[in-house]
Amino acid sequence: MTTRLALDFDETAAGERLDRALAAHPQVVAQHLSRSRVKALIEAGQVAVDGVAATDPATKLKAGAQATLDVPPPAPAAPQAQEMPLDIVFEDDDLIVLDKPAGLVVHPAAGHEDGTLVNALIAHCGESLSGIGGVKRPGIVHRLDKDTSGLLVVAKTDRAHRGLSALFADHGREGSLEREYLALVWGGMERPAGTVEAAVGRHPRQRERMAVVPAAKGRHATTHWRELERFGPKQAPVASLVACRLETGRTHQIRVHMAHVGHPLLGDATYAAGFRTKASLLGAQARAALDSLGRQALHAHRLGFEHPATGETLSFESPLPEDLACLVNALRGQGEG
Predict the structure, then answer these.
(1) pTM of the model
(2) β partners of residue 60
(3) At 313, is the secondary structure helix, strand, or coil?
(4) How do residues 180-189 score in pLDDT, each as one tens digit?
(5) Contact between residue 228 and residue 242 where contact means Cβ atoms under 8 Å apart
(6) pLDDT digits (tens, 9 = 90+) for 72-125
(7) N or C: which end of the chain has fewer CB within 10 A?
(8) What's the order of all strands across the beta sheet hosting 66-71?
(9) Cβ atoms of residues 165 and 141 within 8 Å
(10) Residue positions annotated with a catalytic role
(11) d(Cα 117, Cα 108) in Å, to the nearest integer?
(12) Domain ranges in the chain with CATH number 3.30.2350.10
């Protein structure tokens, strides 16, 4: 059922843009409608000012104006609901935190029209989805590559979507967001900890890949890392376990940055192709574990943020999944030499 809001504006609204004034009105705020959603409703003919339809978001209000805003019910999501098992870590009315397995695509796209996390979430959440931008769909505020496992938070309401989007746009520089990944990389790091600060953009020749590029041709990217454990001979370790904390969130950022400093991820067919011969340095058990991995050795291990509705500080950790834990144990069997 469409909800009609009758809105009165006093003299302080004189000269204010219609979309801005509507979005700031207490009755609209109570509906958890974003300004972009309000703008879309105006353009769709759902707003009248002093009895006259208003379809231009930039319309200037007059003192004492009266407006009506019709808010239709959320439209059904375009992706179809599909029942799939989900590892739910936390869920309430506003958001859901889950542990994504490797191999699961987050969002429908060309070549992956169904069988995605979004399809599964639509089925799981059902009527608890209040509508993101007027559509009953989960609000994806960050993604993990198909073959990266680990923690992911998804919004169920417009209110949560706005708050989480702001947190992820800030990437923890000033807000509460904390994201840490565990990665297995080739070789031993040159020092205990460090930072990679290099712009990431499309590879100039291989467009399906990302690469470190000049600042003018890419997006600023910062990855903080620290070495947790190294495997193999002390003087020439064959691999290391590294914790990576993101200050930005670019496509394939950790994979690109680690390859850029000469330590690509184990199992990364895209960015570690030149390191395939390194497998000959592994013992039989570690080689077998790597061969069976079938993906880059990357796991979203820690996720922390302030709940956008309650203000509560939430923090979650996910241990290494079985495939990566088996690889770590096999690498430990390399010995120190």
Answers:
(1) 0.76
(2) 17
(3) strand
(4) 999 999 999 9
(5) yes
(6) 876 555 678 889 999 999 999 999 999 999 999 887 765 667 888 888 988 888
(7) N
(8) 3-8, 66-71, 47-49, 52-53
(9) yes
(10) 145
(11) 8
(12) 88-170, 179-303+311-332
